[in-house]
Model the fold of this input.
Amino acid sequence: MAAWATLIAILALVSLVRSNTDNSDIQALGVLFTSLNSPPQLTNWAPSGGDPCGNSWKGVSCSGSAVTAIQLSGMTLNGTLGYRLSDLASLKTLNLSHNSLSQQIGDVFGNLKGLSELDFSFNNFSGNLPNSFSSLSNLTSLYLENNQLSGSVNMLSGLGLNTLNIANNNFSGWIPQEFSSIPNLIIGGNSFINGAAPPPPPFTPPPPGKPRTTPNDSPRSKNVPEESPTTGDEKKQGLGTGALIGIVVGSVFAALCVVLALVLCLRNTKRKRDDDEVSNGTSDRADPLAIAVEGETTKAAQVQRSETPTANLKPPPIEKVTPERVFGKNGSMKSPKVTMTATSYTVAALQVATNSFSQDSLLGEGSLGRVYKAEFPNAKVLAVKKVDSAAVSLQEEDSFLDAVSSMSRLRHPNIIPLVGYCVEHGQRLLVYEYVGNGTLHEILHFSDETGKRLNWNARVKIALGTARALEYLHEVCTPAVVHRNFKSANILLDEELNAHLSDCGIASLAPNTERQVSTEVVGSFGYSAPEFAMSGIYTAKSDVYSFGVVMLELLTGRMPLDSSRSRTEQSLVRWASPQLHDIDLLSKMVDPALNGMYPAKSLSRFADIIALCVQPSPEFRPPMSEVVQQLVRLVQRASVARRRSGEDLGSSYRAPEHEQFAAPESSF
Done:
């Protein structure tokens, strides 16, 4: 019996010694499991003990005995992160997105030096970002969008990020200049101060008890002895000198600000007096000092504008009937009267049609607001975009009717027309024709049944229709209209799978023209051209790049960015571009939903057009009129090949006769 007891003890010891997971990692995951309210969907997890690496805990990946990845996206989890995440020293990937986690994130990242990807998006986190984020020296991708986070983001400025998405939170303050070097950046939907952060003051006194050092100094430099004991009087004298310098410099700076404010006040008073004199038929000489200050202020503003990258987001000019502004009973200033072809709706009528903008009527959330289905008593069905008032600045609010007038004049069979608007009771709504067969994004990526209907002909037809819409905006409209948010989610399909481009001209309502606070309306994640990410410049050629990305979606059935794939395949453009001119590799890229039913020559020409559109340099991308011509030739050649050889349109084509390019060119 004693022998059996000894054997059992030895086996237990061996099992313990040969455990596949570090003990600190086991404890950290146990605390996390408890903090998540011990969800049963996390199979094999336990509040204490266990072997995460050896027993394949759900969502946990290991290298040797160390936990290297936790991927629990979309698991309907709730609770908090706990307090032991810092023990996972070898962790490289942490993905808890699309759950219902809440409270503050917690300052538990100080030891996670190897973490490269962190995704907390689409949760309910609140409060400020933890300071320990600044220690994540190897972090390259950070996703925090769609939470309730607030405060400053300065602790992220020193990270070498390639991707940062902090959209739709409550962050405030200045946007760090370092963000301009992040290739994939989305920060819209926050409360940032417009423009770049101001430079630091000339001198900031060191905090009490700390010596003043230069960037190359250290408290324990090799050539500097350790601080020798000093008397209290010596310490007070040293601190007094530093503080005195700071006070003097600060006082001088404050005095200059006061003088400048007084001068500007005098200038405004003088201008008002001059205006009064002009209205009374008298005028005096201009104040030379005010002119000088105005000139210097203008120069400073010009320098600031030249140093800050901006996007070309000017709305097209509109025809105004009367220049005066009209004031309402409540003192609010109404927009000037404009020539308007769109119908004016009341808030009450739109509330009835959308069932008070209920969740059941919600069609989706697009740029600048949510879109609802509106059913009117005469059986007319329309789509209503409820513009988010927080997303539009005062300047755009004043010119809302101007933008509506411009958008209502866009007329093209592949563009969804704006048919109405509402500016009542502080509400601003846009009314569009309703297209009810879903978006291209939904059909390609989320609808298996409908996706099967998108044969090769339908995909070429969609590409050609949207190309013609962009051609109209870029080269027919005067002045040209740049879409700035071209993506598959903004392409709606009708019952005949005709493409209809939405949100045309709505970029004129964007918050402002600066890249740092760009929102969804000025380039979406995965669709943005390189020049926009690098410099903030957005032109018609940037639309061409986005069009090429959509063509890649049509060809491959993949999303522009897919974090679920291996790192080399996450970016669609980066992965696909080297393969577009290799027919063997190209055939392996084709959407499996096509089941090989496509003409090989047509596929090759389609890929050639894509390669031109996604050129890194905008000057090498073709204009949309050339893209349209190439797609038309692709359709015509396929039709000729069909007539000459019947169903033999290429070695890979197996579609039946009724699915081939039988429609005339004008129908595309």
